Amino acid sequence: NAGVMQNPRHLVRRRGQEARLRCSPMKGHSHVYWYRQLPEEGLKFMVYLQKENIIDESGMPKERFSAEFPKEGPSILRIQQVVRGDSAAYFCASSGQGASEAFFGQGTRLTVV
Amino acid sequence: SQQGEEDPQALSIQEGENATMNCSYKTSINNLQWYRQNSGRGLVHLILIRSNEREKHSGRLRVTLDTSKKSSSLLITASRAADTASYFCATDDPGGFKTIFGAGTRLFVKA
Asked: Which of A44, A53, A72, B82 is 20 to 30 A from B108 in CA distance terms?
């Protein structure tokens, strides 16, 4: 059973470009969470999604950031018009229905140059 | 502000010594989890303790939970250089929707 898969592992974007981060949850998991980790800091919750629904996006910046978890395919975190401050590690986690334990991917390290 | 706050922020010990990290939180929880993150890597789930449990063991790890003080501790016994990592505590949002992380304790074990 493969774990949570995130790709790409490393992503470099120029200021103003779009960044698309993908997360494939563990098999059978229908809950996906995205977290952002700035250098030397802890993880900050961004958004919680179930299939085709955004449950809680209280941690998402109001502009430029969006997330989706379609019926088929991976969850996508999209950052439009990236700025240097978006440089961070973005982690995705998944859990099963009713489960408390979340399994994390290896993260995508976004660098904006 | 963060739900979970780890203490200390950084800890440096010799191999073989025990390492104790503490975590305090603010609101009621369903459970508390500890994670490890090696430099440049993803998070690894170490142990989960439920709100009705007081102590839990897993190998060299011992976790305690005091819900009256809203605090938890992670003890790593007989530390090894490979234990060098950042350790995060995380609590479930009372609504059960998301897990809230603290800023982490950076542990450095010298060989």
From this structure: A44
According to the model, what pLDDT value does residue B20 have? 96
What is the overall mean pLDDT for chain B? 87
Nearest alpha-carbon partner for B71 in B19, B17, B34: B34
A101 contacts B48? CB cut-off 8 A: yes
Give the tens place of pLDDT for each residue, A32-43: 999 998 876 778
Q: Which residue of A has its CA nearest to B90?
A: A43
Contact flag B103-A103 (C-beta cutoff 8 Å): no
CA atoms of B8 and B21, how far apart (whole Å) = 7
The sign of the torsion formed by the CA atoms of A82, A8, B98, B49 equals negative
A16 CA: distance to closest CA in chain B (Å): 26
Question: What are the chain A neighbours of B35 within 8 Å (beta carbons)?
Answer: 104
Partner-chain contact B103 A91, CB within 8 Å: no
For residues B103 and B2, is the Cβ–Cβ distance under 8 A?
A: yes
C-alpha span between B14 and A53 (Å, rounded): 48
The per-residue pLDDT for range B31-89, each reduced to its tens digit, is 888 999 887 677 888 998 989 999 999 999 999 999 999 999 999 999 999 999 999 99
End-to-end CA distance of chain A: 36
Beta-carbon contacts of A86 under 8 Å, excluding residues fewer than 6 positions away, are: A19, A79, A110, A112
